[in-house]
UniProtKB/TrEMBL annotation:
It comes from the Bacteria. One of its GO terms (molecular function) is metal ion binding. GO terms for cellular component: plasma membrane. InterPro entries: HtpX_protease, Peptidase_M48. Keywords: Cell membrane, Hydrolase, Membrane, Metal-binding, Metalloprotease, Protease, Transmembrane, Transmembrane helix, Zinc. It is a multi-pass membrane protein. The keyword Metal-binding applies. Its cofactor is Zn(2+). It is found in: Cell membrane. This is M48 family metallopeptidase.
Length: 613
């Protein structure tokens, strides 16, 4: 499909959206005239108001779409001094595909590359061009693979694909804004949603064809091997970035810390785990084609690349980072532009990992200490509380809650695992051990001399009444202060929690609330707003701020504080939650209640069953 045809299709489809709106407006006017002639004005107004509101949303959506500017994405603008090799390569490839080179190159934090053009008059007049290059690509790919990626993006320019960016962007924005403002119960909304799906099918199909067109430039200028290997590298690199953020960054970030070199850390991970990333690339599962995809599946694209003629140069296995004058400095500069550290303490990687892992272990220990406090009635529980349970022969009774189906004897023996966590925490708090960064595996606990500290054998001794004193003696020899290991966070928080469901307009103790269901507790938002807007309200709420912040602003009920749940009716839900302190919470679903997603009630019932064991 040519770029001109897609432009025409996009414009026609967008015009059709408003033709549908005008036809419905005419139908509403005709219905209003008929109703006014057969009923009174009050009845006519009540019946027509929802339809008029829906059509008003069309105007709002169109106005917002027209006024919205498609500004360049944030990133680090690279000049000739910062990226001499990259600029030279881009200009060479632009000439080869027969197009004008971009006006600027922006380094961005994504595992991606893209092009944009601020065109005018629905794409008839070209504008300023921007090439976006993800720093992770420069860190991970060879030069020949990067040539393939860059040739693909420049192929979008030569195919005039970017001219349509403004049309497609505003079309999707106008339709999205319109649908967002119409209640799901409004019949006019059903028509618009159906048209929106048709619009996306047409536009996405054109987008997939354009990707295949751009792939031909990739093969022609970089060669088949470089093009196909670069394409297969992208999902593996994306998975590596997600792993890096989850394993190395997020725990410290949520603890109020930030690494001083976010992108440099990723480069070190790539070097340390090269074999794993290669295995990910070679064993990536193939995805089935879908009419809703903007890109064809990788298997389809690789097959087309293999069949295309390749005239590119030979392999160039030099690392792509050499295209920048100072990749480490560029990474730090990019971090300063796109990462908002807020009040977090910025630390070098060794200190960042040591403190973030220590904070995570403390959170695990706090959960055990709080459980011990509830079990024993101790207001300030800690490691001495747990060790006293061992000494008194009550560890098995206490530990049953952590091991479903285990006998008390089995639970006491199995508690050696959690006990090791408590001892590790005590060793760090005593200043005798620290967590050491490793890019090839989990952080290691090391002692003052840098040698690994393994407290597993001491933990085995510490869970048996006959050997607990020996365990304490070994800890004392190492300088570990058992008495100083106490609870830090006396009540569970929603830090690191994930949202799993949401229910709007639910009565909690007789008062309406919105309820966010997290994987470790419930956020109760009182007096949320009128019925009929619950799903929309929940969607906007959870998309605005992290759930941990919402839990800090509103009453938060951790699951660990709920001893049992009596579900008196599942549909509509009616339940009584009994807390460890003896209080009860009444929960009741109303006829006007709405869900964040269809299975929200089932998800909450699953949580209740888990609480009851």
């Amino acid at each position: 499909m040519s770029a001109t045809y897609r432009a025409l299709a996009s414009v026609v489809m967008l015009i059709g959206f408003y033709v549908v709106a005008l036809l419905q407006l005419a139908a509403v006017v005709a219905l209003g005239v008929w109703l006014f002639g057969h009923t009174n004005g009050v009845v006519t107004g009540k019946l027509l108001l929802p339809l008029v509101v829906a059509l008003g949303a069309v105007g709002v959506g169109m106005w917002k779409a027209i006024r919205t500017k498609n500004e360049p994405a944030p990133g680090l603008v690279l000049d000739e001094r910062a990226a001499p090799g990259l600029w030279a390569t881009v200009r060479e490839l632009a000439t080869a595909v027969g197009t004008r080179a971009p006006d600027e190159i922006r380094l961005v934090p994504e595992v991606n590359a893209a092009v944009g053009e601020q065109s005018r008059l629905l794409g008839l007049v070209g504008g300023r061009r921007t090439l976006y290059v993800g720093l992770p690509l420069l860190q991970a790919m060879r030069i020949d693979q990067l040539r393939s990626v860059l040739a693909h993006e420049l192929g979008h320019y030569s195919g005039r694909h970017t001219r349509l960016g403004g049309v497609a962007y505003r079309g999707r924005l106008a339709i999205g804004e319109t649908i967002e403002r119409i209640s799901p119960r409004n019949p006019i909304g059903w028509v618009f949603k159906g048209y929106a799906l048709l619009y996306l099918m047409v536009d996405n199909a054109a987008s997939r064809r354009q990707e295949l067109e751009a792939d031909r430039a990739s093969v022609a200028l970089a060669g088949t091997e470089a093009a196909t290997s670069a394409l297969r590298t992208l999902p593996a690199l994306d998975a590596a970035w997600a792993f890096y953020m989850r394993r190395y960054v997020e725990s410290g970030w949520s603890a109020g810390l930030a690494p001083d070199d976010l992108f440099g850390g990723f480069a070190q991970l790539l070097d340390a785990r090269r074999d794993e990333i290669d295995a990910l690339r070679e064993n990536a599962p193939e995805r089935e084609p879908s009419r809703w995809d903007t890109h064809p599946p990788i298997g389809v694209r690789v097959a087309a690349m293999t069949a295309a003629p390749a005239t590119g140069p030979g392999a160039d296995e030099r690392p792509g980072r050499t295209l920048l004058a100072d990749v480490a400095g560029a990474g730090r500069h990019l971090q300063s532009l796109v990462v908002a550290h807020g009040s977090r303490r910025v630390l070098p990687w060794p200190e960042f990992v040591a403190e973030s892992v220590a904070a995570g272990v403390q959170r695990q220990a706090d959960g055990i200490y709080r459980a011990a406090g509830r079990f024993t009635g101790t207001p300030s529980p800690g490691l001495p509380t747990v060790l006293e349970l061992v000494r008194s022969g009550r560890l098995g009774e206490f530990a049953e809650q952590f091991f479903d189906g285990a006998t008390r004897k089995e639970a006491a023996a199995a508690f050696a695992g959690p006990m090791e966590t408590l001892l590790d925490n005590a060793a760090v708090r005593s200043g005798r051990a620290r967590w050491e960064l490793s890019w090839t595996g989990p952080a290691r606990l090391v002692g003052p001399d840098g040698e690994p500290w393994d407290l597993a054998d001491v933990a085995e001794l510490a869970v048996a009444p006959a050997s607990v004193d020996e365990a304490l003696a070994r800890l004392a020899e190492r300088g570990v202060d058992v008495a100083g290991a106490t609870v830090v966070q006396s009540r569970a928080s929603a830090r690191n929690a994930d949202l799993i469901a949401g229910l709007a307009n639910i009565k909690i103790d007789g008062r309406e609330h919105d309820v966010l269901v997290l994987d470790n507790g419930l956020v109760l938002i009182a007096d949320p707003g009128k019925a009929g807007e619950g799903e929309k309200r929940l969607t906007a709420l959870v998309g605005s701020v992290p759930v941990a912040d919402l839990a800090a602003r509103h009453p938060y009920l951790p699951y660990e504080e709920i001893t049992s749940v009596e579900v008196r009716r599942e549909v509509p839900l009616k339940a009584t939650l009994t807390l460890f302190d003896g209080r009860t919470v009444q929960m009741q679903e109303l006829m006007a209640s709405e869900f964040l997603e269809k299975r929200s009630r089932d998800t909450l019932l699953t949580v209740f069953r888990r609480i009851n064991g």
